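Friendly challenge for the regulars: who can give me the structure tokens for this chain first? No prize, just bragging rights.
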Amino acid sequence: MKKSITIITIITIIFSVFPKPSLAIEDPLSFSNNRFGIHILFPQELSAAAQLVNSSGGDWGYVTIPIQSVDRNLEKWQEFMDDAKSLHLIPIIRIATYPRGNFWTTPTIFDHLDFANFLNSLSWPVVNRYIIVYNEPNSNLEWGGAVDAAAYAQELSYTIDAFKRVNDDFFIISAGLDGYAPQRGSLYQNSYQFLLDIDKAVPGIFKRIDGFASHSYPGSNFSESPFLTKQAGITSYKTEEAFIKNRFGRGNIPIFITETGWQRGNITEKQVASFYQYAFENIWSDKNIVAITPFLLNGQASSFDGFSLLRPDGSPSEIFSSIALLPKVKGQPQLIDEVVLGKYAPPVAVKNFQRAQDKSFIIKVSPSWKAFLNWLFGQE
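First reply, four minutes later:
Bragging rights claimed.
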């Protein structure tokens, strides 16, 4: 009984006097950052992804992966997060609805709440919980059959509020847009007009997001040379960044190139490999680029096999090998860890605080707090 009273007293003092071990989003460019990443479709692709993005001196690279609203399976996605942690991969989760016929359905009025609560229930590997809010909504194919910038703006606003309400660690990224979409009624909307309409519907929305996703694809049916100097193509993120700064007053926004890549067919695998090498070394090196996750690691199970970095038998292509050989850095993101305080610890008001099934109390903290609290409670 005396031990429990002592623990309660110590914990109360700690969380009254010292800063709470709660965390908020970190500037991903304030520490060593491995900008190399890859877009995957399925959690089982994580091991191959790690071999690509953490090669040649790299560590803690990125993976972009979609999660559908009909696939909120707690066991599946916690296993994904655990595997990402063990493989030193930083997840970028793109929330999605589900396809119906030729279109992806529009979100329901509950999706932003359900996604926020579900993804907050998972134990993530790093402090920043990167979330992309849907995909290319300036295309009717991605938004229920009709483009609606105002509807997307409202959904983005609701999603920001819902995620930040449950946890400040969520790093909200606006959707990458189809940079080649024509201005064609309700079917497609030019990406820059779409951005203007978003801000018109929800003024100031671009000052509330934490990052901006860009789909900087090469032109000419995904075969254009990276040696060309132009405002579109694989450098379109620069034009988008300047547009957001000049029109909406949001400067120095972190950029996530979550889709890009060349399609084999009009060009050879060897050419694609050389294009990637040149782009990573000479184009995608701006200081505010957080991650480049080319589309796609494995397209064999989809209609995107022309973009795949793996061959049909699962072996690395020349493209994969070329990217793997590029020098990388060891990323040093702030990590999350767990400390079990014991059954007698009081329900202190800290973020990421929960009671385990055995009635012990758990908090999720940075490694420095973990070392201190383990010392305090005599745990190894």
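The chain is about 35% helix and 15% strand. Residues 2-20+336-376 form one domain. Your move, everyone else.
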